Amino acid sequence: MAVSSVITVSQLNFYIKSLLDESPALREIYITGEISNLTDHYRSGHIYLSLKDDKALVRAVMFAGNARHLRFKPEEGMKVIARGRVSVYEATGQYQLYIEDMQPDGIGALNLAYEQLKRKLSAEGLFSEDIKKPIPAYPKRIGVITSPTGAAVQDILNILGRRYPIAEVVFCPVLVQGENASAQLIDAVERFNKANAADVIIIGRGGGSIEDLWAFNDEKLARTIAKSDIPVISAVGHETDFTICDFVADLRAPTPSAAAELATPNMTELLAYFKSVKDSLPAIMQRRIDFEKQELDNLASSKVLLSPKEFINIRKNELDMLSADMIKAFKAILSENQRDFVALSAKLDALSPLSVLSRGYSIVQNKNKVIKSAKELNIGQNIMVKLSDGKAECEVKAITLDEKG
Fold first, then answer.
1. Could you write out the three-class secondary structure of 154-205?
2. Whole-number Å distance between alpha carbons of 326 and 324
3. Using CB atoms within 10 A of its CB, is residue 268 exposed (0-12), middle (13-18) or buried (19+)?
């Protein structure tokens, strides 16, 4: 009987890993399941998760190099289809799925990414009507950001030239689809704002698939448009196409041609209006002259001009009446004040020390100090007694205190 050799744990894990790595069936598999235990390491970019169904669960990881290409954000409970390989993490001996690509199950990744970003920016208030800037009625400079080769730019330029040729068109050519498109769109909006190169900006392109229009769903572009000091009109695709750019712009046009119309007044209509105003000016001026002449006639026939002396006499009588009323009111106030003065004088006189002395009272003083109590006197002391009609110098012969004293 053969005796098996003793191996280490790491050797065992390495052996099992080798078996799995060498299995053709496990090198590339497609697996569907519901995401759980999701952990997104923002610093490293790795995504750790589990995929489960109603009976089982498998651990999985998606490294940053693959995760950065995802068009949507994985969420807890989301059902996905993952492509990857099965292997063993030797340190723990746990087998897991190493995901290389992942797609939502039942909805396209781009559609899901679009809805996720739309919810996020809406919750932040970037779509609010309160922050949208008005489009100037008569722009002097109109910025256009689109492809130099597409039909959209020709449509925009043709309509601007026909409707409002006096405006200057500042054209910034960019890519409108592909890997570098969103960066060029962002740069164009920032450059317009930095140089204050336009009064309004039209940004857009012709129609296409969601992949073709994807540059206009870029989150950074959306935030750049939202903070633009220059009003922005979004004109992406056909009437039924909607992008994130449409929601954050100050105005959404269904097509590039419609954007050119919304950005400008109609020069033909303006000229017709000005002509009608010019034609009506003589009649307007004549009506104004007739009105002012009637006003002048009314003034010329007024009493003040026909009989100025009578007007002065009327005003003189009014002044005399006002003067008489004022004198009467002043006398009434003076009489009332006199009565109050007499009453106060009588009260003051009743409280006067001289009035008290006239009623038979006297004031006893010692060296100008008023004596208020018999206890302040001494036998033989000289005192002054003040009466109503004079004073007397006296000598204290005896002191008798009341029982209370």
1. HHHHHHHHHHCCCCEEEEEECCCCCCCHHHHHHHHHHHHHHHCCCCEEEEEE
2. 5
3. exposed
Residues in the chain: 405
Buried b (16+ CB within 10 A) or exposed e, 108-133: eebebbbeebbeebeeeebbeeeeee
pTM over 0.85, yes/no: no
d(CA 49, CA 31): 14
Rounded to the nearest 5°, which phi and psi values hold at 150? -80, 170
Give one word for 209, left, alpha or beta, with left for phi > 0 and alpha for psi -120 to 50.
Answer: beta
Instruction: Count CB-CB contacts under 10 A for residue 85.
Output: 15
Contact 45, 67 (CB under 8 A): yes
pLDDT, one tens digit per residue, over 12-49 is 888 888 888 888 888 888 888 888 888 887 788 899 99
3-state helix vs strand vs coil in the chain, percent to 5: 45, 20, 35
